[in-house]
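Supplementary Note 2. Why include the ligand at all?

Several targets in our set were suspected to adopt different conformations when bound, so apo predictions alone were not considered sufficient. For every target with a known small-molecule partner we therefore ran a joint prediction. The input for flavin-adenine dinucleotide is given below.
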Amino acid sequence: MFKILKKEYLANNIWLMDIEAPRVAKTCQPGQFVIVKMDEKGERIPLTVCDYDREKGIVTIVFQTVGASTEEMAEYEEGESFMDFVGPLGCPSELLGMTEEELKKEKLLFVCGGVGTAPVYPQVKWMKQHGIDVDVIIGARTKDILIMEEPMREIAANLYIATDDGSYGFKGNACDQINELVKNQGKEYTRVIAIGPMIMMKFVALLTKELNIPTIVSMNPIMVDGTGMCGACRLQVGDEIKFACVDGPEFDGHLVDFDQAMQRQRMYKTEEGRAILRRKEGDTHHGGCGNCN
Amino acid sequence: MEVDVLKRVPVREQEPEVRAANFEEVCLGYDKEEAMAEAVRCLQCKNPQCVKGCPVNIDIPGFIKEIAEGNTAEAYQVISRYSALPAVCGRVCPQESQCEAKCIRGIKGDAVSIGKLERFAADTAREEGIKPQKAESLNGKKVAVIGSGPAGLTCAGDLAKLGYDVTIFEALHKAGGVLSYGIPEFRLPKTKVVDAEIDNVKSLGVKIETNVVIGKATTIDELLDEEGFDAVFIGSGAGLPKFMGIPGENANGVFSANEYLTRSNLMQAFDDSYATPIIAGKKVAVVGGGNVAMDAARTALRLGAEVHIVYRRSEEELPARVEEVHHAKEEGIIFDLLTNPVEIHTDGEGNVTGMTCIRMELGEPDDSGRRRPVEVPGSEFTLEVDTVIMSLGTSPNPLISSTTEGLETNKWKCIVAEEENGQTSKAKVYAGGDAVTGAATVILAMGAGKAAAKGIHEFLSK
Ligand SMILES: Cc1cc2nc3c(=O)[nH]c(=O)nc-3n(C[C@H](O)[C@H](O)[C@H](O)COP(=O)(O)OP(=O)(O)OC[C@H]3O[C@@H](n4cnc5c(N)ncnc54)[C@H](O)[C@@H]3O)c2cc1C
Ligand SMILES: Cc1cc2nc3c(=O)[nH]c(=O)nc-3n(C[C@H](O)[C@H](O)[C@H](O)COP(=O)(O)OP(=O)(O)OC[C@H]3O[C@@H](n4cnc5c(N)ncnc54)[C@H](O)[C@@H]3O)c2cc1C
Ligand code: SF4
Ligand code: SF4
Ligand code: FES
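The joint prediction is reproduced in token form.
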């Protein structure tokens, strides 16, 4: 069993949890993920490693409630335990494969959206610890749903906040902010790392292709086992089929077929819709509402 | 009970119409009277050919004699000297091409039902709470086993019986390998049979640590150098699914058989009280003709779909067990033989709407000795389906080979290991089962686990 040592509400239905998982904490790296299975009958839920403490054997996860399983997860309290917690899975961030000299030559821009801000944090922290300054953009619809602004500000060289409605920071989305930095302020970046909703990553990748900046994205397709056994997580990347759980989750954003990936993510929409109804209404829901089929 | 010595005692099964709508076991097995009657048919050959047909050389006349005399517990003890998973093998071994193929009785009439008798002995032992014999004392040596499929369980069980302190590391949340995630409930009951046989292995003192992916959480070198293991056995199977590479294969509604079966078996998606979803499909095409294809097809059928098996060769070449093909047909699976998919079609939202196939005919024999299927020009037609399940075979996952220095693999990514003792190119590291041979059978994996246990024991007692 894997104990929840800390639970914290961040914003916008996003929760942070510290989990006691010594084996995972010992070897996990930024860019990798874990799979959580809450109880006997639970789904296997992939979540990115957001931080870790090797000495204390702790792994931090941050998740947003988007469906039946993540809602149930948010009901777990400190002191309770998850039945299964497997990881680390996937490959460490590509940046970790580079030498410090190579990295020092890079001018990196991290672009985060929504819950994707959380997994960017350990990467930026890692850079900071190795003496490498990076810029970070956090994009959000509005001020109230921003997460992790303060911790990120402490470690980023420059932190830019962009809100769609202009309620805080720059007015515009993440792409507008990139344009502002590159086109108007003349900033130069050798690489962009975008982590957030697929739709955001798609448009960032389109823009950086135009700007000719190599771009890494972190894909979150539907997964089952997370070990390369089922193929549910397959993506079209260039002219190859890749399994996100073993070949990724990070890929070259200019090669990923985002439209197909987004389509595949919707595969269980109606099935999940039924699951949510079952959870909310129990046996009292007998169809006919028009939403459950 | 009347016995015609030339005919086997028939085994009771659920009626096809009934079982097509449930996940209960199809074959109900013998009761004691039936088993004893069948056992009497064995001629107790002096030079039993059947034993040569069994990859782990079970003393077949030995255990059948005990059944004939009504000593079921003794029969089980005879079998468990050779096999750690008799209730599994009695159900899923391809007996018709192994032990039973060699049985002398088969020359004039039906071979003795060795598999069904093995199953009877193991089931009865379990019901009566009989356990295999545990080692009297530990020898102080530690062995790590990677993977809890038949190869890993057998190797672990054999080593534990010899007094080793054995830990199995399993990537998934549940032990059993393909027995748990692949082969369906209606053919191999999970709680009743698989979990019980795993418990037997545990009762020998074997520890099973689930949720540990070797190559990620820790490596083989770390197990040997830091965690104090004296040897490692790799039984990680061949889990990586293949796809065809045809247009439309990433559409919504196209699954690998592994995904479909994992959702249904490991995650129990057919039961609404479990959270994992599965798309049942109304009309399903399963591409392939092996055991895995039959299992996926019969699972989809039980979830309520009309199911077609699409296979490019003819019935004769179907690699699945005869019994499974027979059961599938009885249940109403439609076989589209000599047919091969060329493209999958979708609607505007990316959902599968159909699959164009082409008719095939058999030409000259190929490397495998089977006649090579060739396309019949202009014979394309479209099968209207909403779900396609690809069951084209699997290969070993590179997770372990790519993270272990000095571990040799061949061009199919299979780990190279000696057949007689499982020794790999790396000292202290042994391997066996599907990870070495590519996708094969339960009993061959067990045979390899056994051979490696012997190899490890010889090495560590030097
Ligand atoms: C490698 C990886 C890392 C991830 N990291 C995080 C993270 O750090 N924080 C976070 O909040 N979320 C993360 N996700 C997404 C998270 O796994 C899903 O939000 C979660 O599984 C949804 O479950 P649900 O039942 O609550 O929602 P559902 O109702 O099942 O689905 C809501 C949405 O999520 C999609 N979805 C469903 N199941 C999965 C799945 N297994 N994987 C991906 N998407 C799915 C659905 O298609 C739908 O669009 C990650 C996914 C992957 C693959
Ligand atoms: C659907 C289906 C039906 C079948 N039907 C039959 C049948 O009727 N009769 C028959 O004889 N055979 C059948 N087979 C084949 C048979 O099941 C396999 O040949 C056999 O299970 C192989 O055993 P194994 O121990 O080598 O590997 P597996 O059973 O594949 O077990 C390997 C285990 O290792 C784990 N693992 C993998 N990598 C790692 C890692 N890095 N770290 C930790 N753990 C890891 C896996 O999760 C898995 O649990 C069938 C196979 C399938 C898929
Ligand atoms: S293990 Fe398989 S091959 Fe051997 S006797 Fe039993 S059924 Fe026959
Ligand atoms: S070959 Fe057949 S008859 Fe002879 S011992 Fe084996 S099972 Fe009995
Ligand atoms: S999640 Fe199953 S192969 Fe990637």
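Chain B has 17 helices and 18 strands. Chain B touches chain A at residues 171-173, 181, 210-213, 216-218, 239-241, 243, 245, 249-250, 252-253, 255-256, 258-259, 262-263, 267-268, 272-279, 349-350, 397, 399 (CB under 8 Å). Comparable summaries for the other entries are listed in the accompanying table.
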